[in-house]
């Protein structure tokens, strides 16, 4: 039995979109006309009516889903067979049980606009309808596509990662001064560059984003923090060599699992809030500590820069 190979990611040109390996938009056989829903996502206002008079008391305005509706069409002039094949490929791309049936499953919509790199949104494809087959014999099938983003943010298609050992001392290029070297004046001495510190991370987007965190043992009582936000994640447990703990911080999918199966959320200390451990926009620094006599424990942080728009 052969091991299935992971399909390479499809590179998109400006004005192109992709879901489940199905590419549509400019330069393809599925041109897109109008797109609705690229503005601000729908809000869930928490206003409260005034029980004794006119008006309401404004509450918090949370974002709801972001619904994108594509007015598109399959265009293969004089080739109805190819048009029917493209329609079948679209339906197959959306018929993914991992995204469609599992409660935590999501479709990934990727898109690119001029001047930007490819970005992605997570949600569900709710509609992929051939609105008419009257002109299918001529190779033209109009489509109505609707994607509901359960998370209204757009994310960088490129995944950023950071790997840290417990020894986070900066590595200096110049050697230490030896005993036969003369002392130097303060303005002439070599100084460590703050950028050498290995815990720097950058969210290139314009809104905070949610990291995924994995701690590889052996380590006891690991503690992870962000120096800018002051948020901390601390676990009261011990990991042996070869074991790991993975933590997801996205509010809709917050969990902490040991070796991918055992729930260890109860081992988090009271101040440790997964749903608040966001990476701010711009640059910040991640640090961590724990007890590891071998010096082989590792912290792995992965994230995608987050944006308000495509």
Provide a concise account of the structure shown:
Helix content is 6%, strand content 39%. The chain has 2 helices and 24 strands. Strands 1, 2, 3, 8, 9, 10, 11, 12 and 24 form a 9-stranded antiparallel sheet that branches. Strands 13-23-15-19-20-21 form a 6-stranded antiparallel sheet, with no helix packed on it.
Write a structural description:
By secondary structure, the protein is mainly beta. Helix content is 6%, strand content 39%. The chain is built from two helices and 24 strands. It has helices at 80-94, 97-100, and strands at residues 16-19, 22-25, 32-36, 43-45, 48-49, 56-57, 61-63, 66-75, 107-112, 119-130, 140-149, 154-156, 160-165, 200-203, 212-216, 219-226, 232-234, 238-239, 244-248, 255-258, 262-263, 282-291, 298-303, 306-307. The protein is globular, with a radius of gyration of 25 Å. The model is unreliable at 1-5 and 170-175 (pLDDT under 50).
What is the overall shape?
globular
Percentage of residues assigned to helices: under 10%
What is the C-alpha radius of gyration, as a whole number of Å?
Answer: 25 Å
Report how far apart the termini are. 41 Å
What is the mean pLDDT?
88
Count of β-strands: 24
Strand content range: 35-45%
Main sheet characteristics: 9 strands, antiparallel
Helix and strand run: EEEEEEEEHHEEEEEEEEEEEEEEEE
Number of helices: 2
- Summing up helix and strand content along with how strands pair, one would put the structural category as mainly beta
Q: Uncertain runs with pLDDT below 50, 5 residues or more?
A: 1-5, 170-175
């Amino acid at each position: 039995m052969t091991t299935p190979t992971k399909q390479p990611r499809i590179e998109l040109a400006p004005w192109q979109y992709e879901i489940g390996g199905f590419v549509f938009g400019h330069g393809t056989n599925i041109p897109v006309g109008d797109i609705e829903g690229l503005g601000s996502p729908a809000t869930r206002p928490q206003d409260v009516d005034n029980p004794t008079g006119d008006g309401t008391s404004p509450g918090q305005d949370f974002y709801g889903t972001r619904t994108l509706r594509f007015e598109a069409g399959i265009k293969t002039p004089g080739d109805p067979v190819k048009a029917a094949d493209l329609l079948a490929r679209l339906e197959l791309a959306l018929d993914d049980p991992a995204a469609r049936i599992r409660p935590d499953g999501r479709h990934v919509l990727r898109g690119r606009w001029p001047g930007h790199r490819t970005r992605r949104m997570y949600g569900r494809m709710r509609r992929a309808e051939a609105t008419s087959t009257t002109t299918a014999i001529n190779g033209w099938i109009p489509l109505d596509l609707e994607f509901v983003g359960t998370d209204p943010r757009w994310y960088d298609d490129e995944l950023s990662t950071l790997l840290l050992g417990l020894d986070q001392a900066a590595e200096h290029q110049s050697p230490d001064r030896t005993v036969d070297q003369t002392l130097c004046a303060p303005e002439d001495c070599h100084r460590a560059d703050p950028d050498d510190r290995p815990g720097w991370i950058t969210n290139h987007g314009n809104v905070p984003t949610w990291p995924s965190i994995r701690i590889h043992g052996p380590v006891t009582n690991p503690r992870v923090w962000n120096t800018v936000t002051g948020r901390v994640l601390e676990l009261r447990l011990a990991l042996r060599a070869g074991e790991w703990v993975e933590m997801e911080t996205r509010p809709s999918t917050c969990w902490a699992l040991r070796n991918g199966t055992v729930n260890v959320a109860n081992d988090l200390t009271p101040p440790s809030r997964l749903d608040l451990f966001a990476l701010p926009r711009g640059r910040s620094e991640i640090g961590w500590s724990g007890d590891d006599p071998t010096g082989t424990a590792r912290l792995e942080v992965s994230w995608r820069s987050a944006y308000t728009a495509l």
